[in-house]
Give the backbone structure.
Amino acid sequence: MTTFIQTLIVGLRLGSMYALVALGYTMVYGIIRLLNFAHGDFIMVGGYAIIFSVPAVKAMGLPIWVAVFPAIIVCALVGMGTELVAYRPVRKNGTAMSALITAIAMSLFLENLAQAIPAIGPNPKVATQIFPSSGIKIGKVTLDSSTILTIIIGLAVMLGLYFFIQKTKIGRAMRCVSEDKEAATLMGINVNRTILITFGIGSGLAAVASLMYISAYPKVFTTLGVMLGLKAFVAAVLGGIGIIPGAMLGGIVIGLVESFTMSYISSSLSDAFVFLILIVVLLIKPAGLLGKNVGEKV
Amino acid sequence: MTEKERNETPVLETRGLGISFGGLQAVSDFDIKIYKGELIGLIGPNGAGKTTVFNMLTGVYKPTEGTVYLDGNALNGKKPYEFVSAGVARTFQNIRLFKDMSVIDNVKAACTKDITYNLFDATFQTKKYWEAEQAVEDRAHELLKIVNLDDKASWKASNLPYGAQRKLEIARALGTNMKILLLDEPAAGMNPTETDELLSCINTIREKFGIAILLIEHDMSLVMKVCERIKVIDYGQTIAYGLPEEIANDKRVIAAYLGT
């Protein structure tokens, strides 16, 4: 029983992290039908931004996790920059395929650019501890503070985002643009600006995911986002790509599958099971868990 | 031309408006002046270029000749959303609601440009955010009342019956707080009862907002009943412009509709 609960909690922790990254994929896909493969690399950018901000945060006597705020800003700027420099021009003149290739190119570009910057370089950087190491014990289950905080932050961010999209003018504009760009622009919505904000928010979420990642695995390297991004992408597809609650659900499911495979079957099989689940779900529900099987509209 | 000259700037004016696609001249020399409070009809056989005119008046197509003026200001090179900011709103020939959104959110979406709070207010839910959202909520209900859809505010737009969807498109267009409303075949596919409701709805809008309206419509009885003046185009050319009774007896109009 203790193992079960412990596994469940670890799964929720992993799941919150995947969900935040999956949200970034799904928001961008929902609004411009683009699989932004560079999104995983935004996590890497966020990771380095946190590592480089930590000394300043320490010097100011603030708790270390505050370093996430500069990271959010850096990630949002990188995300918006990517949209402005790479995606928008291609969207204007190219096809969906050229946009997809551009996204893959952006991903490789960011990874290699990071390696080329002397302060980063090819060797992994070890991060300081983000959350205090204290923990609480309930019965036989031990919960360290980083696990609890990761889950709480994850839930809070997801709730906040859901509220933002449902109840604010920017969220409404995002939903309109995702449904019908031409009708949206004829209702006075600045479509390009809305897409830019979507990139900013999605990339900002990646920075929060970086914080969660570093608090669990305090090592940052330039290809950090590849596997993490891929699994989060699986989570987004599993939940129904383009659907915000789908990304949250998909992320949690992937986290739980990974954690339960690790403790009950084999830790080396956990990734295999993640992808197996994806294949099974897509065979039964091709549009994902929350997707409707009609056309490509979301 | 029977156009009465007024001593005011027209809300909408076009001079020599024309567009060609490749070698095909779709619309040429389209001139119109619409004053505040007027309701002008735009008719013509299928493929005459009516919707093309609407697309030029809303910035969707860039005219190859001529200029659109709103309150005397040229709108050359502006993007569609800037046309809306300037005060042009439209409905669509084929309904283009945001189907997966609620009825009221459709109207609220059209109010976006008039909501002033920023990303910071939205994130931290400042007082400004709550006040602005409350104001837009009230406004949206107000507009839904005009088209008798207030009781269905929380419905998903795609679940509304056809006639109601057309009326929601009008309410949504009103949300943009426009100076001129372009209605593209609002009565298309409606039964006589729905058309009558639409008519009273259009009258309410005119009384309440005093805006100018340009109406494309195939239902001749509707056009003859509501329009003050009618412009007829065929093959992209204006062939007649005048009062409804003049249009009904115009030889060229009859020829265009029935063939010579």
Notes: The first strand of chain B starts at residue 12 and ends at 21. The interface with chain A takes residues 58, 60, 79-81, 84-85, 89-90, 92, 96-101, 105, 108-113, 115, 117, 119, 122-123, 129, 132-133, 136, 172-173, 175-176 of chain B (CB under 8 Å). Residues 1-81+212-260 of chain B form a domain with the Rossmann fold fold (CATH 3.40.50.300). The CA atoms of residues 166 and 186 of chain B lie 6 Å apart.
